[in-house]
Amino acid sequence: MRRLHLTDRHLRVMLWCILLGLQPAFAGILDPFNWARSDRIEVNIPWLPFENETRCYDELGCLNITRSWYHLIHRPFNVFPLPRVVINTRFILYTKKNPTDGQLLNVNVNKTIVKSNFNPKRLTKMIIHGFIDTPLSNWVSEMKDELVKAGDFNVVIVDWAGGSLPLYTQATANTRLVGLEVAHFINTLQKEHGVDPLDVHIIGHSLGAHTAGYAGERIQGLGRITGLDPAEPYFQGMPTHVRLDPTDAQLVDVIHTDGKSIFLLGYGMSQPVGHLDFYPNNGKEQPGCDLTEGPLVPLTLVKQGLEEASRVLVACNHVRAIKLFTESINGKCSYIGHQCPSYQHFLTGKCFHCGHGCAIMGFHADSSPGLITNKNNQSENEVYPSEEHDTIGAKYYLSTGKDLPYCQRHYRVAIQLANPKGAESWVQGFLKVTLLSDRGVIRGMDLTPNNYVKLEHGTTYTIVVTHPMDLGGKVRKVELSWEYDMNVLEPRSLCILWCNDRLYVKSVLVDQMELPSRGKRNVDFSTKLCTPKREFAEIPNRGSASFYDNCGR
Ligand SMILES: *[C@@H]1O[C@H](CO)[C@@H](O)[C@H](O)[C@H]1NC(C)=O
Ligand SMILES: *[C@@H]1O[C@H](CO)[C@@H](O)[C@H](O)[C@H]1NC(C)=O
Ligand SMILES: *[C@@H]1O[C@H](CO)[C@@H](O)[C@H](O)[C@H]1NC(C)=O
Ligand SMILES: *[C@@H]1O[C@H](CO)[C@@H](O)[C@H](O)[C@H]1NC(C)=O
């Protein structure tokens, strides 16, 4: 009997039906065919609700809705935000002096600032939550705690829970008003307390990322915005004034973790929208988020309530950006992202060194510009500050673990295959590797994570794998295990009596990914290993061979 699986996808469909079902005429935008062609559709609707209307909000300024806010497919609806008193945006301060009891800041009441622990000379870090979320979410206080621990910051949590529920169209409109509130907050602190906007860093998740963008648009010289999986629906494909974009702050760094199309139920944008756009694990689906793996899904629903379960199930990929960022604040391991044409290229080791352009993902992203090498400058391993146009639109790739610690070391393993007489021209199967260095050992790392591979004798098989262990560069010994794949569906690979199921390996090259800033050359992190006294190793099916770093001796 088949078990009924309540998967991520089912819950997402249910949630979206609830949200979109309350919208008029939603059927039109749920047509993937039109969505795919949407850029070629002429928007020619004679009348759009609210077109050319403006609303003003006292000291905050005005918002308008022009035709540019509409797109037949990407953004079919626009409304004005709910009243200020309903959204009730609040700013709650935490510092090392008050790490757990927040202080409410109201810039219109001077004494709430003066009497608080707010210090205008310190750096300010602001956190903005997203849709159907509140500052009571665990992640908000986890991130706040890490920030307070990391430095003498003013950590300000923006609470707009009054506007984040429940309809998506209304919530997206509300973010515009929250953006005005945040801008007014920072601009007033600048005018009356001497805060330098360059010292302000806004971290926003989902809708909160675009909220930060709206704020940045109205702040002269805002220092930094970190967008954590910026929301896709109503923003992707829209003009820059509608969404987060690189003009919203001096540095806009973005982590994409749920970038599937909304029709495949991804909530995050796939489009690059900052100066540095990171795509961990390709930015679409995160390891450990495949919920069909775990059998306990319905149990979670019963035990912890629908709210908690939907947080985990519906948004695992979408929430991963938060987890990665939070880990990066005080973590010792650097998330090194590499510019590359695609994640597939990255995995086959084609963009392993910083010569292609690299940057640090997460909290320390602002220390990367010095690391970005000038692509056209061939002088070895030197780093130069990049020009902005070099990175805008570029995608930075990296891999992470599926659980804490997410940040892992990247190793590139290149296996040079021999092609002696008697070897089959190709064999297919599974490879595992054990790496030993003076620092320690990594055992049984899978070099064929996506099932078997086809290996052609005489060529080199290269793959990038990750592990939490830092081998410290120099690898002394490698042990390679080989298992031939008896695939009955592909007769050529049936290899019992009449063919040679051995793998012939000449040498193994292991590189460890490093930051060039350590002042060492990449060569230090690259080791070539060979078999002792022989030209190549002959590895039988289910056998293994050892390689040592004494090639040519
Ligand atoms: C809104 O303004 C634009 C530009 O000024 C104009 O072309 C358009 O006709 C106006 N729309 C309405 C409904 O007034
Ligand atoms: C709408 O608001 C934007 C941003 O404040 C402003 O630049 C633009 O001129 C306004 N457009 C109209 C038609 O009022
Ligand atoms: C608020 O307090 C600061 C610091 O004491 C002062 O410089 C500023 O003028 C005050 N602003 C108002 C509007 O009273
Ligand atoms: C590479 O960088 C060095 C150091 O800044 C500079 O002198 C040289 O002209 C650059 N070469 C190219 C081709 O840009």
Automatic annotation (TrEMBL):
UniProt GO MF annotations: serine hydrolase activity; triacylglycerol lipase activity
Keywords: Disulfide bond, Secreted, Signal
Gene Ontology annotations for the cellular component aspect, listed alphabetically: extracellular space
Residue intervals of the Lipase domain: 56-370
Signal peptide per UniProt: 1-27
One of the protein's GO biological processes: lipid catabolic process
InterPro entries named in the record: AB_hydrolase_fold, Lipase, Lipase_N, Lipase_panc, PLAT/LH2_dom_sf, TAG_lipase
Source superkingdom: Eukaryota
UniProt-annotated location(s): Secreted
CDD domains, per database record: Pancreat_lipase_like
Family according to the record: Belongs to the AB hydrolase superfamily. Lipase family.
PANTHER family reported in the protein's UniProt record: LIPASE, LIPASE DOMAIN-CONTAINING PROTEIN-RELATED
Protein's recorded name: Lipase domain-containing protein
Organism: Helicoverpa armigera
